[in-house]
Design a protein that fits this description.
Blueprint lengths: L3 H8 L2 H15 L3 E3 L3 E3 L14 E9 L4 E9 L7 E8 L5 E6 L3 H18 L7 E4 L3 H10 L8 E4 L3 H7 L1
Helix pairs in contact: 2-3, 3-4
Length: 170
């Protein structure tokens, strides 16, 4: 079984940015269908056993007349556990599952970072002299890597709530 970790370096690419752009364009032209998010564990629903902050979201969507649709189940906030998630890729024709990806929410992190880099490509000044990051978590990790696709700037200022977070980031 192929591990998603093996694919991660290949995802930091202009192809990922172009796919993100195509998704935004399709969505803005009403060529995509996104169902309302179902959330378990938030009020008014009953609490989950993972703790007060635990929740699971189910998200579905597809590009109209494309070959696939996607269902994502993402969980987070359970005490003592990190984020988790799976992505189910199914055929729009047969409705049969084609792939199951246990990504532990990493594809969400990559999608968010790619969207930020894509926006940065259009709105950054021509000459960037410094990049500022607030927080040293997983999102900062991916944001910085995707920004290498849109700027040559490598001077980074990192602001975190703790020295240990900053040291772990470096």
């Amino acid at each position: 079984m192929r591990q998603i970790a093996d694919l991660l370096p290949n995802l930091i690419s202009d192809d990922t940015l172009q796919n993100q752009k195509a998704a935004f364009v399709a969505h803005s032209m009403n060529k995509g269908t996104i169902s309302p998010v179902q959330t378990l564990g938030q009020t008014p629903a009953g609490p989950m056993l993972g703790g007060k902050q635990s929740q699971v979201c189910v998200k579905t969507g597809y590009i109209n007349e494309d070959e696939i649709f996607v269902t994502k189940v993402a969980g987070g906030g359970a005490e003592g556990y990190g984020n988790t998630g799976i992505v189910l890729v199914s055929s729009q024709r047969s409705l049969q599952p084609q792939y199951v990806l246990q990504d532990n929410a990493i594809l969400t992190e990559i999608r968010t970072a790619a969207a930020t880099a894509l926006a940065s490509r259009y709105f950054l000044p021509k000459k960037v002299t410094r990049i500022g990051l607030f927080g040293g978590g997983v999102q900062a990790f991916w944001q910085l890597r995707f920004l290498t696709l849109v700027t040559d700037c490598r001077d980074v200022v990192l602001k975190t709530r703790s020295q240990s977070t900053a040291e772990a980031f470096l």
